Amino acid sequence: MLLPIPVRVIYTFILACCIGLLAYALYAQYVDGLHPCPLCITQRAFFVLTGLVALMSLIFHPHGVGRYLSAGLMLLCCAGGAAVAGRQVWLQGLPPDQVPACGPSLEYMFENLPFGEAFSTLMMGDGNCAEVVWTLFGLSMPNWAMIAFIGLGLAAVATIFATPRR
């Protein structure tokens, strides 16, 4: 069954959402003064990747197997971002005595540690990642990021069932 929505509209929607989410993240960082933790930066990277796949799909308009590949890549990026956001939500839910100690900065990790160890340390999160400094309707920024990744993932799946170009 095909959705009555052109696939390019969905690609545009995904791209616009990613741009909007990243724009707000930059606004929160540079105007509101909220400094992103390593997990926040990783979530931003997954929004960038999702948006880039949507942009490439919008430009090249894949069909056939390419459409499945495009949807799969976007879904994979969204799943990775949701996993990172989920990890941060979990860290934020820990009792204060169980929160990991604050670790080195992201720049320090990637400059001084082997990539595998830096990546592992990054994914573990630290005390900075457990701090809730912003909420909207009782949900923290990682909660909203996880909701956004799930929604974008569903939109990516919808591209498979959307009306192809004529």
TrEMBL record:
| Covalent S-S links between cysteines | 37-40
Q: Which domain of life is it from?
A: Bacteria
Which InterPro entries does the entry link to?
DiS_bond_form_DsbB/BdbC, Disulphide_bond_form_DsbB, DsbB, DsbB-like_sf
Topological domains annotated Periplasmic? 28-45
Residues crossing the lipid bilayer are 9-29, 41-61, 68-90, 144-163
Q: Which residues lie on this side of the membrane: Cytoplasmic?
A: 1-10, 63-68, 163-166
Q: Which UniProt keywords apply?
A: Cell inner membrane, Cell membrane, Chaperone, Disulfide bond, Electron transport, Membrane, Oxidoreductase, Redox-active center, Transmembrane, Transmembrane helix, Transport
Pfam families xref list = DsbB
Q: Cellular location of this protein?
A: Cell inner membrane; Cell membrane
For membrane topology, the record states: Multi-pass membrane protein
Quote the HAMAP family the UniProt record gives: DsbB
Q: What does this protein do?
A: Required for disulfide bond formation in some periplasmic proteins. Acts by oxidizing the DsbA protein.
Family assignment from sequence similarity? Belongs to the DsbB family.
Instruction: Write down what this protein is called.
Output: Disulfide bond formation protein B
Native source organism of the sequence: Spongiibacter thalassae
